[in-house]
Specification:
The chain is of the alpha+beta class. It contains six helices and five strands; from the N terminus they run ααββββααβαα. It is globular and about 40 Å long.
């Protein structure tokens, strides 16, 4: 069984995670000022998360994203928890990114608050509890 037991569990975790990021002043200001948006396409369970300065959307795409990231929910769990490093994930095809390389380079360092908070969010939601 994967890290997430249901789409509802994944939705709750990723919504909480990106809401936290949007409350981070540095992240929110950069996303707003640079007109950055990212759409995460997750599989197993299937879930799309769109993040922009205006908020977080689940299974909706309010505008064309600057960056698209495709990965399984298991890869997302490993990435956010620090067990999978982005360069390795990209090199092995566990994560695929589409969009401006410059935007990706600009975006990734802004995610640090999510990496810091994800383990507690996931644990509280019971992610991986049945592994």
């Amino acid at each position: 069984m994967g890290a997430f037991t249901s789409k509802e569990q994944a939705t709750s975790v990723f919504t909480t995670l990106f809401d936290i990021l949007l409350r981070d002043e540095r992240f929110a200001a950069t996303v707003r000022d640079e007109n950055l948006s990212v759409q995460f396409f997750h599989s197993a369970p299937d879930l799309t998360v769109f993040v922009s300065a205006d908020g977080v959307w689940i299974d909706e795409t309010p505008s064309a994203p600057a960056i698209s990231i495709k990965m399984s929910c298991d890869s997302a769990d490993a990435l956010w928890s620090g067990r999978l490093l982005m360069p390795i994930a990209l090199a092995t095809g566990k994560i695929r990114i589409k969009g401006s390389v410059a935007k990706v380079i600009e975006f990734v360092p802004l995610l640090q608050p999510a990496f810091d908070r994800y383990p507690a969010i996931a644990a509280e939601a019971g992610v991986g509890a049945r592994r």
